[in-house]
Amino acid sequence: MIRDDVKTAQIAAMKSGDKMTVAATRLIEAAIKNRDIELRTASTQPDDDLLVTEVLQKMIKQRRESIDMYVKGGRQELADAEAAEVTVIERFLPKQMSEDEATAAIDALATELGATSVKDMGRVMAALKERFAGQMDMARASGLVKARLG
């Protein structure tokens, strides 16, 4: 499980004195814990690895936005710190599909669902999230689905 990998990496980083990894893994664990608390009252619990993957993807998205703002603001040292956190967070994500693999999966799924127009985009995106969550960036997949159906 990804949650266990984060804890193991944190312990190893503490032993080796890697302060950046320790800090990043603590942030990851805090974000996961917050998500667990949010879901306490939920009627259905998602798969643990899926939950952790969603949290990690959200963290990466937030940091990439921060990097853009820091670079625009002339604060390169802060952008570099955020980029280092992104590198640590990405270590725990499952392997992402390449552009070609994602396109092939979208084509197969659209054919399977009988999707022919942009009106069917919601059904295709829902099926993609169900089958490929964590393996595919859904923002990028949205553009690919729109191109396929458009």
Question: Describe it for me?
Answer:
With 150 residues, this protein is an all-alpha fold. The protein has two domains: 2-90, Uncharacterised protein YqeY/AIM41, N-terminal domain (Hypothetical Protein Yqey, Chain: A, domain1), CATH 1.10.1510; 99-149, Arc Repressor Mutant, subunit A (Orthogonal Bundle), CATH 1.10.10. Helix content is 76%, strand content 0%. The chain contains seven helices and no strands. It has helices spanning 2-16, 19-38, 48-72, 76-90, 99-113, 121-132, 138-149. The chain starts with a helix and ends with a helix. The relative contact order is 0.11.
Mean pLDDT: 88
Summed up, the helix count is 7
Task: Using the alpha-carbon principal axes, give the shape.
Answer: globular
CATH architecture of the largest domain: Orthogonal Bundle
The secondary-structure element order is HHHHHHH
Strand content: under 5%
Instruction: Specify Rg, calculated over alpha carbons.
Output: 18 Å
CATH topology of the largest domain: Hypothetical Protein Yqey, Chain: A, domain1
N-end to C-end Cα span: 38 Å
User: How much helicity do the residues have?
Assistant: over 70%
Please, what is the CATH homologous superfamily of the largest domain?
Answer: Uncharacterised protein YqeY/AIM41, N-terminal domain
CATH class bucket of the largest domain: Mainly Alpha
SS-derived structural category: mainly alpha
How many strands in all? Answer: 0
Number of domain modules: 2
Largest sheet: none
Low-confidence residue ranges: none
